[in-house]
Design a protein that fits this description.
alpha/beta; 9-stranded mixed β-sheet; two-stranded antiparallel ribbon; 7 helices; 13 strands
Length: 249
């Protein structure tokens, strides 16, 4: 059994449907929080700065991650619902099974978000995981730890990774995955499964699932106002006049 969403820009009505027999979803990959194409495209058109400002106002809390979470592969922007993975320290030599399953089983367009308590000296993502994510048409990955195989990924892939660091170190014998699709702390922000990840050169913003439509509406309005404001500043030759008219900086 799985869940599909229907309605509006953000589907909020969950319908039970039969799970395809050819696809097994372990570890709770059962709730497909799929946003409409219109919503995803709308977020692709607005900057994370505008999205961050809108989250501040609508959600009443900070939505942007620490500045250390940066694009490590290219300048490509990513937008998609979060599929979360939690990792913790260990001395066992175990594969990151929850992450591997998430790559194969998550809905197309998902963003894998890995919480590892800000550990920057090991890589929780690499070339093979990138290959798997790309063939499964995931949107990107956001990591509270490191990424490795950067040269390989840049050479062979268009897949985007935002990470706290770049490190050659493996997690084997150091960290293991504990769970998937649970709340995780990443870049100082608590990310819940299905929250919308919006990430570009300015950074990563987490939009709470319940606020996705309202945040997009406000972020779009902010972009329109700022374009008008910039035009006025250039026409008048005065920063003060542009700020005075729109009351925003």
């Amino acid at each position: 059994m799985r869940f599909n969403t229907t309605g509006g820009g953000l589907g909020v009505v969950l319908l039970k449907t039969e799970e395809p027999r050819t696809r097994h979803r372990p570890f709770g990959f059962r709730r497909e929080t799929m946003y409409s194409k219109i919503s995803i495209e709308g977020y692709m058109k607005v900057s994370t700065a505008s999205v961050s400002d809108a989250v501040d106002k609508i959600a009443g809390k900070r939505g942007y991650m620490d500045h250390a979470i940066k694009p490590r592969i290219s300048e490509k922007k990513i937008v998609g619902p979060a599929v979360t993975i939690l990792e913790s320290a260990t001395e066992e030599f175990l594969p990151p099974q929850h992450a591997l399953d998430a790559i194969d089983e998550s809905p197309e367009g998902s963003v894998i978000v890995i919480g590892i308590n800000g550990e920057s000296e090991v890589a929780v993502w690499g070339g093979l995981m990138t290959a798997g994510a790309e063939v499964n048409r995931l949107a990107g990955a956001v990591l509270d730890g490191g990424v490795r195989d950067v040269t390989e990924i840049r050479r062979d892939s268009d897949f985007q990774v935002f990470a706290r660091s770049v490190s050659p170190g493996t997690t084997l014998g150091r960290f293991k995955t504990l769970a998937a699709n649970v709340p995780v702390l990443c870049g100082g922000i608590m990310v819940h499964p299905g929250d919308l990840i919006v990430a570009d050169l300015d950074g990563v913003v987490v939009v709470p699932m319940a606020n996705v439509e309202d945040v997009l509406r406000m972020a779009t309005e902010i972009e329109v106002r700022e374009a008008e404001q910039a035009r006025l500043i250039r026409e008048t030759g005065s920063l003060r006049e542009g700020l005075a008219k729109y009351g925003r900086i």
